[in-house]
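To: structure subgroup
Subject: Chain for Friday's discussion

All,

I'm putting the inputs and outputs inline so they're searchable in the archive.
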Amino acid sequence: MKEVLVLRDLDCIKAIAHPRRVDILKTFERDPLSAKQLSEILDEPHAKINYHIKTLYNVGILELVEEKIKSGIVEKYYYPTANNIVISRKIIDYTLEEDLDRENISISDFEDTIESFYDAAEAGALNGDSVLEYDNLLLTEDEIKELRNSVRGKIDELVSKRESNSLENEKKHDIVMFAIPTEINN
């Protein structure tokens, strides 16, 4: 099972948008469930639950994990394909401006960072060292500039050391530093 499944197309989002399908996903705990079991738990007709299961299965949100024959009938057991399901905002990301001022970060840049994070999570490439630092601090604008310059200097130093030689275990990384105000004065 994946840790994260990122829904990137409208069919997947339509499938999960139905409240009963969300209820179905929330019903799963540790064990796979059949349509019959889900219909009993959710107190819904078997045919309705089966329809919702097939919709979730067809877009890859549920997976068939087992088939058992009970009284001559094949009972199918399903389980979510991931522990966490996230809707990618990139499918609705747009801007009316054709040429953005590259000096300023845009929502699209932030979404690209989030998308890279989701891709790494889906691939199982994140570990305890993936979040380099997270703090909630009181900072002035000058302190933010000082911090940015310090990090930029260290990155430039690492890059200049590495330009001539590569290491066997190196991997490309996106390094992102945000100073996001958490208290907004209007």
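Points worth raising on Friday:
The beta strands are 2-7, 33-34, 62-70, 73-80, 82-87.
The first strand starts at residue 2 and ends at 7.

D.
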